[in-house]
Amino acid sequence: MTYRAGVIGTGGIAGLGILGLHDEDQIGSEKVRASHAGGYEAADGIELVAAADVDREKLDTFGEAWEIPPERRYDDHRAMLEAEDLDAVSVCTPSLLHAEHVLDAVEVGDPDVVWCEKPIAASVSDAEEMVDACEAADTDLLVNHSFRFSEKIRRLRDAVAEEDLVGNVHSVSVQFRMELMRNATHVFDLLGWLLDADPARVAGHVTGENEAVDALQADRRVDDAGGGGFVVYDDGTFATVDCTVPRDASSMTFQVLGSDGKLYLNNDDAEWRYWALEDGAHVETGHPAVADGWTWAEDYASAFPNAARHVVELLDGTAENRSPGRVAVESLAVIVATYVAHYTASQVDLPLPEPLCDVTVTSW
Questions:
Q1: CA angle, corner 7, sides to 5 and 13, nearest 5?
Q2: Alpha carbon 146 to chain centroid, angstroms
Q3: Whose C-alpha in 115, 125, 186, 323 is 20 to 30 A from the C-alpha of 152?
Q4: Residues 134, 135, 136, 138: what is their CA dihedral angle, to the nearest 10 degrees?
């Protein structure tokens, strides 16, 4: 049996490539592996059969690139959901539209899996509505926090969270390129997963700067901006996050300090290192979990086929959701709390009180 998938939104992450990650001559002219369409093409047992977008030119470019027949290219996503018998739906639209499109997918198309781009939504209340609707419909809401689909990072996470590679984690320091919604969502999701802990308190700073305006050749402004701050987790771990760094100067780095050792992870330079704490001194030590550093060219790109294979596993009923919507709500809540903390010159406790759940932060 081959499952049928459709995509809502046919921009870069759907399969046409993203400025800043891909060469300009690739955009719209080549199949880009690091995408939803690329994931479906690489995975056995599932086929991308339909696409929807309000931008007809973009839709046709996508359709030609990924061999979607003209009669299965829809200007109206609800028309696609009504006409096609889809087992899985990818939502690749701007985050402000995720709630509408996920809710429509569940109501009109009734797929068994919705594979939604990150961040899950633009507000916590929207995200919670999406999660509740999917749970009521018995639909798996899978959020594309791509590090969860990297085998190297899964191995590292198991070593830290389950094998006590560094003992009890005391603190984490993270640096990544701006912006908060577009990029820090990966950081906050990975922190919660790596630590196996929930965020409890947030302080934040927002720069107001957004390089994606130029990188994406955007025609409109959004709230999303560079920023950072600190997060205290419910196990006491203190994490500082700096997402103010321009793209050309950025390295995605994590420094993890624990009771029995420390880690240095640089995902731009593929450099992972581990030191064991021995008799009060840190001694650099080899370990299978840090044998190979993570890379954008291979590990980021392979996350999409891995995620699509996981979609098939969920459809087969042979796996539990690796990146469920309810968990993705937490990383969004940290980002919203960062904005609230900045503009109110305060610290914000999580879970967010109900009025703050409606705070909306627009991005792409």
A1: 120
A2: 5
A3: 115
A4: 80
Q: Residues 166, 207: contact at Cβ < 8 Å?
A: no
Residue 82 burial (C-beta neighbours within 10 Å; 0-12, 13-18, 19+): exposed
Report how far Cα 30 is from the mean position of its chain's Cα atoms: 23
| Distance between CA atoms of residues 226 and 220, nearest Å | 17
Q: What is the pLDDT of residues 285-300, one digit of tens each?
A: 999 999 989 998 889 9
Nearest alpha-carbon partner for 364 in 114, 102, 122: 122
**Domain limits, the chain:** 3-147+301-316, 148-294
DSSP-derived letter for residue 114 is E
Q: What is the mean pLDDT of residues 55-59?
A: 94
The SS3 call for residue 86 is: coil
Helices and strands (H, E) in the chain, number of each type = 10, 15
**Is 132 exposed, middle or buried, given 0-12, 13-18 or 19+ CB atoms closer than 10 A?**
middle
Rounded-to-integer distance, Cα 61 and Cα 57, Å: 6
Under the banding of pLDDT at 50, 70 and 90, the label for residue 20 is very low
The single-letter DSSP state of residue 294 is -
Q: What is the pLDDT of residues 346-357, one digit of tens each?
A: 999 999 999 999
Largest Cα span, the chain: 69
Q: Which of 177, 198, 173 is nearest to 186 (CA)?
A: 177
Joined tokens for residue 232: 């205290």
Over residues 312-333, the pLDDT tens digits come to 999 999 999 999 999 999 999 9
Whether the Cβ atoms of residue 359 and residue 123 lie closer than 8 Å to each other: yes
Q: What is the rounded CA–CA span in Å between residue 192 and residue 291? A: 23
Look at the domain 148-294 and name its fold. Answer: Dihydrodipicolinate Reductase; domain 2 (3.30.360)
Mean pLDDT of 201-223: 84
- pTM recorded for the entire structure: 0.94
Report, as an integer, the average pLDDT of 248-276. 95
* Under 8 Å between Cβ of 269 and 282: no
